[in-house]
Design brief:
Number of helices: 5
Strand order of the largest sheet: 1-2-3-4-5-6-7-8-9-12-13-14-15-16-17-18
Distance between the termini: 29 Å
Order of helices and strands: HHHEHEEEEHEEEEEEEEEEEEE
């Protein structure tokens, strides 16, 4: 192993000190000259220390630290000054706040090309959580590459899940992605095959709860996910599938009860003074099928002098248990995302995303217009101003706003630092 410049310089300095007699030594005739044995012993000690130093430096070379911080101010049209205690509400209705949306730090340890270890933390608002922790093994065969990931990682489904929030033009992902894959991550194993030039295949077995749910599940079976992605020059296309189960926990029986409040204080039971609750029978746990299918495409062009243009689109078709109708519902979502670089320091983007939790229902779909302007202050800092306009849609419409829609537009100002 080659010694670094710092280690070599340290060696030279220590050697000079070791071989130079001190003032007190020079004054003593018997100690003014070191014997060859003493010189050899000192050099052996110096060499041992340098070997330890080189080992420590090598470990630092294997470790990569990355991450980003997003400090945010958010203004919402629904905001009201409300105190939970005085106004008897569950949570404050004020939605205008300064807060930390994401504070991510990732440690990647890779001493060899055949394996690596990753652990990834997030500090958001006032809590710290584990986002990812996995071991990844690599194997190359000619120009074919294979990888096996085990632990907690991004679900290999679609484009938007694995696209980092530090790179995305908008403050948040689309509503469809957030509803179908809350947290974006799960626990399990994922196999990746990369073919020469353009094809990537994924197949995984997952716990099925996501990282926002409990770590364990009463279900013996696990969820399956698969994805295929092709890179065709300026255009990337992908298709994904997900098959699994949703478990509804059992609910114990509740006995009925009666209570009397003597409203007029006459010590007699009068009409309207007795409140009775009916008993509720126990509900057994149940298992429901769930599946998701997705198509995505991205295109990148340099057609105008201002800078690069990106077009991204993704479509979701899903089936899952719906708590509102208490049965399986068909779900649908999609987004169309346009981004444009303007010179070296500016960028603009627009997106429309659609989400319908029950395609057989009416007045339950949401369409959201999102706009963002980005300023790249330097190589590490990006300032984003975003404006989101969510709308409850009328009937089965894709764009028309319902009369029941409430004004809940949201403005976001975000300062991001990336390392």
């Amino acid at each position: 192993m080659k010694r670094s410049f710092a280690a070599t310089a340290l060696f030279a300095l220590v050697l000079m000190v070791a071989l130079s007699p001190s003032r007190s030594t020079a004054q003593s005739a018997g100690d003014s000259v070191l014997t060859p044995q003493e010189i050899g012993d000192r050099l052996a000690g110096i060499s041992e220390n340098l070997n330890t130093l080189n080992g420590d430096v090598a470990i630092l070379k294997w470790l990569k630290v990355s991450g980003y911080l997003q400090a945010r101010y958010e203004y919402n049209d629904t905001s009201k000054s409300t105190d939970t205690l005085l106004k008897n509400v569950a949570t404050p209705r004020n939605a205008n706040n300064f807060y930390l949306r994401r504070g991510r730090i990732k440690f990647t340890f890779q001493p060899a090309q055949t394996s690596k270890y990753v652990i990834y933390f997030d500090a958001s608002k006032n809590s710290v959580s584990l986002k990812e922790a996995y071991v990844e093994l690599y194997k190359g065969l000619n120009r074919h590459n294979f990888a096996l990931t085990a632990g907690q990682f991004n679900v290999p489904f679609g484009y938007e899940i694995e696209y980092s929030s530090s790179k995305r033009d908008f403050p948040e992902r689309s509503l469809a992605e957030n509803k179908l894959f809350p947290g974006e991550r799960d626990r399990g194993v994922n196999f990746t095959y990369t073919a020469p030039k353009y094809l990537v295949l994924n197949a995984g077995v997952l716990q099925g709860n996501g990282i926002d749910g409990p770590w364990n599940t009463p279900l013996k079976t696990k969820d399956i996910v698969a994805r295929a992605k092709a890179k065709l020059g300026m255009i990337d296309i992908g298709m994904s599938g997900y098959w699994g189960n949703t478990y509804l926990a059992s609910v114990p029986a509740v006995a009925g009860s009666s209570s009397w409040y003597d409203a007029n204080g006459n010590n007699a039971i009068d009409a309207g003074e007795v409140t009775t609750t009916a008993p509720k029978a126990a509900v057994a746990g149940s298992t429901w099928d769930k599946d998701r299918y997705g198509l995505d495409a991205q295109a990148y062009f340099d057609l105008i002098p201002a800078g690069a243009t990106g077009i991204r689109a993704e479509f979701y078709q899903a089936r899952d248990y719906n708590k509102d109708i208490k049965k399986v519902a068909h779900e649908q979502g999609w987004y169309l995302w346009l981004s444009q670089n303007i010179g070296r320091n500016f960028g603009a983007a627009a997106r429309y995303d659609y989400w319908n939790p029950n395609t057989n229902g009416t007045d339950n779909a949401t369409g959201t217009w999102s706009f963002a302007a980005n300023y790249y202050y330097d190589g590490n800092v990006r300032i984003t101003a975003g404006y989101d306009i969510p709308q409850l849609l009328k009937g089965k419409s894709t764009f028309s706003k319902s009369d029941k829609d409430r004004r809940d537009n949201r403005f976001t100002l975000q300062f991001q630092y990336t390392i």
